[in-house]
């Protein structure tokens, strides 16, 4: 019996040691491919958050390899396991709009007039994120702006591919606008809002509703470091911030492919730009081009990228990247000029920075009023850190205050 016990202890010790080595090896590999620029305030905090995210992903991969659960399921579980208690200032209720789960935040303080309504679409690369991951953020917006906030739990990729997330967000928004009297909201004061992938969804929903005559016009759209195109992953911000946490250039393309068709086999072609035919890229160059990025955003190191052609086989798998419901930056001017007043937040150290800058220009060129707020020391995902105890960043709170 003693021999069996000793062998079991040795086995567990070896397993734990191997597990730790695997995690540390993955962290070291990710570190060698990452860079925290000197312009980021509190770089140690960002590094710690990065380590936590890498460790979570590695543990998930190990669990997947030994058949316990998928990596995606594990990461989603870890993201959403914190639950908040009752909020003394808000009524919070989970409902279904059609077949879409939503969470509604309504201020308890009485209002002399009908409130503003905010449809909120969470970020997470269309693969991660939930009603729970953005709970603090939605509570803060509802409390501080005294608005009714509706957070939408849209379907996630790769289980549910494009256009599932877009359709859920659109259908939830239409349902809210058609039943708005139940929530004490002014139909002329409804806003769509989202961060990252949620910003993409907010932009797409806003474009779709711009042409609807049977619904009230949206009052505004709030796009927080949105991803808005998949034609060019070699714009200045993609080159400059390719290894800056919390979103690497490669991961940005990977998530888009997961949302598109759940298949990342064409990742290299997407990154090098050989996934879209040259004639199509030239057609959209008036909107998606480094020439439309102000020169001050190119000084950190940018090399013009040579246009590459693609095979028909590759293009067939990704041709829906040219649809505005997936890549809102490619919408025609006839749609863009109908869009409501817009707020766009960008971060200097974010691969998606230039998507926001390009959309800002498109909106302004079409006569849409834009409020632009740029976090000079910000990185992708910083808004979600506004209330993360000792891992919070003052820039994230500053950006959120401007949104409110």
Mean pLDDT across residues: 92
Shape: globular
Cα separation of the termini: 66 Å
CATH T-level fold name of the largest domain: Rossmann fold
Instruction: Please count the beta strands (DSSP E, at least 2 residues each).
Output: 8
How would you name the CATH homologous superfamily of the largest domain? Alpha/Beta hydrolase fold, catalytic domain
Q: Which sequence of strands runs across the widest sheet? A: 1-2-4-3-5-6-7-8
GO molecular function, one term: carboxylic ester hydrolase activity
Active site: 196, 350, 380
Keywords: Hydrolase
InterPro entries: AB_hydrolase_3 (IPR013094), AB_hydrolase_fold (IPR029058), Arylacetamide_deacetylase (IPR017157), GDXG_lipolytic_enzyme (IPR050300), Lipase_GDXG_HIS_AS (IPR002168)
Describe the structure.
Helix 5 packs across helix 6. This protein has helices at residues 2-32, 43-65, 71-79, 135-145, 164-178, 197-210, 236-240, 249-261, 267-272, 278-284, 312-318, 333-336, 353-365, 394-403; strands at residues 90-97, 100-107, 115-121, 148-152, 185-195, 220-224, 341-349, 370-379. It folds into 2 domains: 1-79, no CATH class; 90-229 and 323-403, 3-Layer(aba) Sandwich (Rossmann fold), CATH 3.40.50. Helices cover 42% and strands 16% of the residues. Strand 1 (90-97) and strand 2 form a beta hairpin. The chain contains 14 helices and 8 strands. Residues 3-29 have low confidence and may be disordered. It starts with a helix and ends with a helix. The longest helix has 31 residues, at 2-32. It has 404 residues and is α/β, with parallel strands linked by helices. The active site is at 196, 350, 380. One of its GO terms (cellular component) is membrane. Pfam families: Abhydrolase_3.
């Amino acid at each position: 019996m003693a021999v069996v016990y000793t062998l079991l202890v040795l086995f567990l010790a070896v397993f734990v040691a191997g597990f730790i080595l695997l995690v540390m090896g993955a962290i070291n590999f990710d570190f060698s491919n990452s860079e925290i620029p000197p312009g980021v305030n509190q770089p140690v905090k960002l590094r710690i958050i990065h380590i936590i995210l890498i460790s979570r992903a590695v543990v998930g991969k190990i669990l997947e390899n030994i058949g316990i659960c998928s990596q995606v399921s594990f990461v989603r579980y870890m993201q959403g396991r914190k639950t908040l208690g009752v909020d003394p200032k808000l009524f919070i209720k989970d409902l279904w709009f059609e077949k879409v789960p939503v969470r509604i935040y309504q201020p308890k303080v009485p209002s002399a007039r009908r409130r503003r309504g905010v449809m909120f679409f969470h970020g997470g690369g269309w693969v991660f994120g939930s009603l729970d991951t953005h709970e603090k953020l939605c509570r803060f917006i509802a409390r501080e702006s005294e608005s009714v906030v509706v957070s939408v739990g849209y379907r996630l990729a790769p289980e549910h591919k494009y256009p599932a997330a877009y359709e859920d967000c659109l259908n939830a928004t239409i349902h809210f606008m058609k039943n708005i009297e139940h929530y004490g909201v002014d139909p002329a004061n409804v806003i769509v809002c989202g961060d990252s992938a949620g910003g993409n969804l907010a932009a797409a929903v806003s474009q779709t509703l711009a042409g609807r005559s049977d619904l009230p016009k949206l009052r505004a759209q709030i796009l927080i470091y949105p991803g808005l195109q998949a034609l060019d992953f070699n714009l200045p911000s993609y080159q400059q911030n390719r290894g800056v946490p919390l979103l690497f250039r490669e991961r940005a393309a990977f998530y888009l492919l997961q949302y598109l068709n759940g298949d990342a086999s064409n990742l290299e072609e997407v990154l090098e730009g050989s996934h879209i035919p040259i004639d199509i890229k030239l057609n959209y160059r008036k909107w998606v081009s480094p020439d439309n990025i102000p020169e001050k955003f190119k000084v950190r190191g940018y090399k013009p990228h040579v246009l590459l052609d693609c095979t028909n086989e590759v293009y067939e798998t990704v041709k829906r990247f040219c649809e505005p419901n997936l890549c809102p930056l490619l919408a025609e001017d006839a749609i863009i000029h109908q869009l409501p007043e817009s707020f766009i937040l960008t971060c200097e150290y974010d691969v998606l920075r230039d998507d926001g800058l390009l959309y800002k220009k498109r909106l302004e060129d079409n006569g849409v009023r834009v409020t632009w707020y740029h976090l000079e020391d910000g990185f992708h995902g910083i808004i979600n850190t506004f209330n993360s105890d000792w891992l919070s960043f003052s820039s994230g709170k500053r950006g959120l205050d401007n949104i409110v």
